[in-house]
Design brief:
The complex is a heterodimer of chains A (347) and B (268). By secondary structure, chain A is α/β, with parallel strands linked by helices. Chain A is built from 14 helices and eleven strands. In chain A, strand 9, helix 13 and strand 10 form a beta-alpha-beta unit. Chain B has 268 residues and is an alpha/beta fold. Chain B has one domain: 3-Layer(aba) Sandwich (Rossmann fold), CATH 3.40.50.300. Classes of the chains: A alpha/beta (347), B alpha/beta (268). At the A-B interface, helix 4 of A face helix 2 and helix 4 of B.
Chain lengths: 347, 268
């Protein structure tokens, strides 16, 4: 389902999206070039979401504190002061993320960053608050801006870089583990999670990827941009549902130039494993269920696939079953959903 | 209290005209205030004998407890001179500076007297520079123009802003007339007069080009102070009288570009 502008806006402005990326560079500092209020709002939202997903590390964030004075006379001096404060902490990377205010009054943020003594470790992320669009746009802007620090390098075969994980999603680690499980069937490892708990030096690994895995459509813009820049293939999303796992293995194998025979072997092993795991839920066969509200685009399709495989009957008068809020990733996401259904049935 | 704003193309002579009008008003024993609304902050320099007075925006951020004497300075004829000030070229938001200045003047209850003259930057480039026309400040706008096409073009654009703002139910601002600050072009008087009439207003005064203006400026004075018996000083006095006696304020009907060009061609 295509999100409308207003729905996208519910997630806040581009500043929040960019912050959700830059905050996950462990040895970096983020400067929010904005009034205090914007930084407070964004950081509060970030902190609440991070806590909700059991992430309790507090990222280093500095605000340049644009006031009425900076609006009138320009915020460049305030930014310079913030850069000095950030540099004094000796971070490996300084991400300068802008709100709408400095972009509206025309601060030359890029010029200020380039002229600072620490220019080599400064990345300008022109999020531009509401001018930059939604939170989703902010994530793309940040990913693209930071990726420009990496240069093409010699490919390390059978390595993948994941682009744009949902850092504030509650099941981000489970989803990552599922992707790694599927990739391991082909001997592929993830060399970089861009950007999730990485160091600034890790960014260079972008250039060595055999291929890229884009988390989902949300960060397609950044993913495609990065893949094209490095001239490497990409897989367009994490695996969605059961057949999604199989196609994910195929796509990853082809992206790495792995032989058809090896891919087929990995696919067969996965299909066998799926049957084994689904057999745990055979008691659900024949159950009548009703799929209610779809909380996330694609949830119904994933659920219907499981319904069909297990011989469950979809019926308007059936038991209304819960669907996960986020789209289930791979087999592990489907199994988690089935556990919920079984619990409801047993109740 | 009469509150008048002078708008026009950059370099057309708004500050010279404003300062001389303020000087002429002061000769009539009126309490006069002139507010320069341009980051260049040179509107009141001739009234202040060449002194660059501290601007409101400078003082606002330098002094914790800002007082009237920090921002209002007495010039020739007792005219109270204020400069809004603003950012250096190419940075910040000068329009926001004008808004902040007016908010402060309002808070300090500094806007008083018989006549307040607002000398506003070249064009109404944003809402900030339209502020003197809004919120009950200037109730009369005078367009300063010569007969040059680009100057008329700017005046016509400003009349669009006046028309837009005066069309609002809460608006008090109307066009008081057009001041021709002549470049001594052929048929200039007729051209600017017809322009004024075509936009639904009138030519309020015609200020011929005169060496006495330049002579006064190099001596850091208004013409009225430097050469009070000159013809040019009388021109400014008559212009001040016309403004004080003016009771005909209109919502203008701006011309289209084609109409404006046709008009300019007519008087070539």
């Amino acid at each position: 389902m295509q999100e409308s502008i207003s729905e996208k806006r519910l997630g806040g402005c581009a500043l929040g999206g960019s912050l959700a990326v830059t905050s996950f560079i462990r040895d970096g500092i983020t400067i929010i070039h904005s009034p205090q209020g914007c930084a407070h709002q964004m950081f509060s939202a970030y902190h609440a979401m991070a806590a909700d997903s059991d992430s309790f590390s507090i990222p280093k964030v500095i605000v340049s504190n644009i006031t009425n004075r900076e609006v009138i006379f320009g915020g460049e001096e305030a930014l310079l002061e913030a850069l000095d404060r950030a540099d004094a902490e000796n971070p490996a990377l300084i991400s300068v993320v802008t709100s709408c205010v400095p972009e509206t009054i025309g601060d030359d943020v890029e010029g200020v960053c380039a002229s600072h003594a620490a220019a080599d470790k400064i990345v300008y992320v022109p999020a531009s608050g509401f001018l930059g669009g939604s939170s989703q746009d902010g994530e793309n802007i940040a990913l693209i801006s930071i990726s420009k620090r990496a240069c093409p390098a010699e490919v390390v075969p059978r390595t993948a870089v994941i682009i744009g994980e949902k850092n504030l999603e509650s099941e981000v680690e489970e989803n990552y583990a599922e992707v790694c499980r599927l990739l391991s069937r082909l001997g592929i490892t993830v060399s970089l999670r861009f950007c999730r708990n990485i160091s600034a030096a890790d960014i260079g690994l972008l250039g060595t990827a055999d291929f890229f895995i884009i988390r989902d459509e949300r960060v397609e813009e950044a993913g495609v941009d990065i893949a094209n820049r490095f001239g490497r293939p990409y897989v367009s999303s994490f695996p969605k549902g059961l057949t999604g796992c199989v196609s994910f293995i195929r796509e990853a194998g082809l992206a790495c130039g792995i032989s058809e025979a090896e891919i087929m072997e990995a696919v067969s092993a996965e299909e066998e494993y799926q049957e084994e795991q689904l057999s745990i839920f055979r008691e659900l066969s024949g159950m009548k269920v009703y799929l209610g509200f779809e909380p996330f685009a694609g949830c119904h399709a994933v659920a219907r696939e499981a319904i069909e495989r297990l011989g469950i009957i979809e019926d308007a008068d059936g038991m209304e079953i819960k669907l996960p809020f986020y789209l289930p990733v791979g087999l592990s996401g489907v199994l988690k959903m089935l556990y919920l259904w079984r619990r409801e049935k047993r109740r | 209290m009469r509150q008048i704003a002078l708008y026009g193309k950059g370099g057309i002579g708004k500050s010279t005209t404003s300062a001389n009008l303020s000087a002429a008003f002061s000769e009539k024993n009126l309490s006069v205030m002139q507010i320069g609304c341009d980051p260049k902050h040179d509107s009141t320099r001739m009234l202040m004998h060449g002194r660059w007075i501290p601007t409101v925006l400078e003082q606002m951020y330098e002094k914790k407890d800002i007082k009237e004497e920090d921002i209002i300075f007495e010039g020739f004829g007792g005219v109270r001179c204020v400069e809004a000030g603003g950012p250096e070229p190419g940075i910040g938001c000068a329009g926001r500076g004008i808004i902040a200045t007016f908010q402060l003047l309002e808070k300090m209850k500094a806007l008083f007297g018989d006549v307040v003259v607002y000398d506003v930057l070249g064009d109404v480039v944003c809402g900030g520079f339209a502020l003197p026309m809004r919120d009950g400040y200037a109730e009369e706008v005078y367009l300063v123009t010569s007969g040059e096409l680009m100057s008329l073009y700017a005046a016509n654009n400003i009349s669009k802003a006046v028309a837009r703002l005066s069309g609002r139910s809460s608006a008090k601002c109307k066009l008081g007339g057009v001041i021709c600050n002549a470049k001594n072009m052929d048929n200039e008087y007729e051209l600017v007069k017809e322009f004024a009439e075509r936009i639904g207003s009138k030519l309020i005064c015609y200020i011929p080009r005169s060496k006495s203006v330049q002579a006064a400026e190099v001596n850091r004075m208004t013409v009225i102070e430097h050469d009070p018996s000159s013809e040019q000083a009388d021109v400014y006095r008559k212009c001040a009288d016309s403004i004080l006696n003016n009771t005909d304020f209109r919502i203008p009907n701006p011309l289209s570009l084609e109409e404006l060009e046709d008009l300019a061609r007519k008087y070539l």
